[in-house]
From TrEMBL:
It comes from the Bacteria. Homotrimer. Its EC number is 2.5.1.9. InterPro entries: ATP_synth_asu-like_sf, Lumazine-bd, Lumazine-bd_dom, Riboflavin_synthase-like_b-brl. Transmembrane segments: none annotated. CDD domains: Riboflavin_synthase_like. This is Riboflavin synthase. Catalyzes the dismutation of two molecules of 6,7-dimethyl-8-ribityllumazine, resulting in the formation of riboflavin and 5-amino-6-(D-ribitylamino)uracil. GO terms for molecular function: riboflavin synthase activity. Keywords: Repeat, Riboflavin biosynthesis, Transferase.
Amino acid sequence: MFTGIIQSIGRIQRLEPRGGDVRLSIDAGKLDLSHAALGDSIAVSGVCLTAVELHAHGFSADVSRETLSLTTLGTLTPGSRVNLEPALTLATPLGGHLVSGHVDGVGQIIEQREDARSWRLRIQAPAELARYIAPKGSICVDGTSLTVNQVDGAVFELNIVPHTLEETIIGGYRSGTPVNLEVDLIARYLERLLLGDAAAESARAKSGLTMGFLAQHGFASPGDG
C-alpha cells in the first residue's frame, strides 16, 4: 500500500528485455534507499513494483508483459522521468489517500492551463472508470494522490499547486501525455458490495449495477436517472 505522496522523481537508466518481460533500472534521485531490502515494494509512476536489485543510486525491478501493456511503463525510454514512492509502514503519515499501486486504466491529458501559480489539468479517463470518479473525491495520477475538482462524463479536472508541480513529473505533462490512473479503493469495493449475491455470478450472467437495482436497495429513487 502507498499514500500517493511522491518522495522523489527518478529516471530510467536502462530497459533490459528478458524473455518478453523487461527489467527496469531506475536512478532513484533523492529517494532514501538506505533501509531498503530486496523484495520491497516501490511505486513507479503509480505502479507497484518489486525491487530485485539495489545499487548505489537506485534499484531494478521486473515488469511483466501485462503491466507493460496496461500501464504507461511500456512507453518508457532511457531518461524518462518517473514518480517514486516506497510502500507505507504503520508509522507513515497518511497525507494522501490509500493507494494500492494497481493501475485501473490509462488516461490522457487533454488540456492544461495556468491558474495563478497553479495549473488546471483536464484528463480524459477510460469510459469504464467514469463511474468511480466523483467531484471532491480522490484519484491517483501517475502515483500522485489528487483531489478531483470537476467531472464531465469521463473527463475530470484537477488543480495542481506549485509544490506538486515541482516535486512530481506532473510539471512535465503536455496535451496528449498518457497517465496511469487508479480510482479510489472505497469506490471499487462499494460497487462490488452493492452487487450482493450477484457478485458470485459470472460476468455473462449479470448485467451489473442499474438504477433499478440501486432503487430496490434504497440507494436511489425509482425516477432517478
